[in-house]
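Subject: complex prediction, re-run

Hi both,

The earlier run crashed halfway through, so I resubmitted it with identical inputs.
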Amino acid sequence: MLIRKAADIASSEITPKSLYLSRRRFLAGTALAGAAAVVGAGLAEMASPSTVVRANGKIDGLQQSSFSTDEKITPYKDVTNYNNYYEFSTDKYEPAGLAKNFKTRPWTVTIDGQVKKKQVLDVDTIIKMAAPEERIYRHRCVEGWSIVVPWVGFSLSELIKRADPLPKAKFVEFTTLFDMKQMPGQRGSVLDWPYVEGLRMDEAMHPLALLCFGMYGEVLPNQDGAPLRMVIPWKYGFKSAKAIVRVRFTDSQPINTWNRSAPNEYGFYSNVNPNVDHPRWSQAKERRLGELLKRPTRIFNGYDQVASLYSGMDLKKNF
Amino acid sequence: MIRWFKPVVFLACLGPLARLGWKAYRGLLGANPIEVITHSTGDWILIFLLVTLSITPLRKLTNQRWMIRYRRMFGLFAFFYALLHFLTYIWLDKFFDWREMWADVSKRRFITVGFTGFVLLIPLALTSTKGWIRRLGGKRWQALHRLIYVSAIAGVVHYWWLVKADISKPAEYAFVLSLLLGYRLVLGLLRSTRERKSESLSARSAEVTEV
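This time it finished cleanly. Structure:
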């Protein structure tokens, strides 16, 4: 069965348009960098315009991404009123109200662990590291529902490159803010706070892994993970940590919060996979919000280009 | 009790359904309407089961005999919302995909236990009439209708097993249910010790007379 499936992913053999384009961009980038070295650092800044957020929350100069899907975008109202954000509430309809006064500035992110130099960066420094892109991704929750969201951000690899991890660093761990005053859900012990998620280094460096600070062309709403979150479109939603305050590089596999909470139900990888059921429910289908009938779930949520990251791995064991 | 009271309670019991219908009509069921319908009907099954189970203790504690006349109605409403819950599952959630549903019932323990709880309510709903009480005889009818204990436990376990991490709501139902079942257990134990005592007493007195 699995071998047959692997043969089906012929599309991953073809170099995706995205990679092809990013290679071009890379070449163009190197040329520019060369020029910049001669002319001065100022030109490099012009080659990758940094994020400008206007007073009304709109983000200027968004570049379109070839990673984007052309599927119908889920209404803004749904994506901002139906949130699994246990730091605020276990009721998906509540974070919208409870996060209203959540303070996202000033906000710093600690970068430590296996890095050359520990840094504490202001979130506004981070979001200006690279040109903001709009990426329309499918997002699949482990509970069996899905949405299509136009996220704003850039590849996580941009931050990792600047964090300068040591060769020993094999994993990246993300930690969410722990602040009971602002996040009432943390007063209970439903999960082990603070929320921790992690990726293998090669997963984190994959261009699809998005460091996100906006959606629908605007600054990220509080209930959707402001000011800074991850978006890993080929994994179940809980892998995409929200309100990140720490990025730690490690040599051992981080223990992510849901894995700690129920190790037989939530693994470290948690790749979207219709062939591996959650012990308590099937993952074969999903309900796209706004649709009546369920649609079949696709392996890696349809992002076949990540398949090579897991070649030779038993995805049933490494769920 | 006043005569118009029962129809008022009946209409009030239809309230949760009317509210869902109104919200659906106005598009107020949020991002995932089917989930809301499933959860709401599920909640009302448990509420009606607990209300049904609290009639007897309340009646005994307050000495209000009229209450018993509402027990059947509440029980039937529990079944009514269970039927809606079940229909939501087979129609809106699974869309009559029998193969998938069979896989669910056999593989997912929270579905298995929930389904069991629902099936056990069917004979209770069918034999809820006066005619059936007569046909079965009071004792046997009562024994059959003790299945509601199993059904209510199954319902709470179903809820407990399906939540991801936050068990606070199923725990609330479990707490109330354990009070209601605990009351019956204690009463039953008291009665049986009283009976045993009187039995042994009469036995001893028999011995005494023999000597």
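Residues 1-47 of chain A form one domain.

- K.
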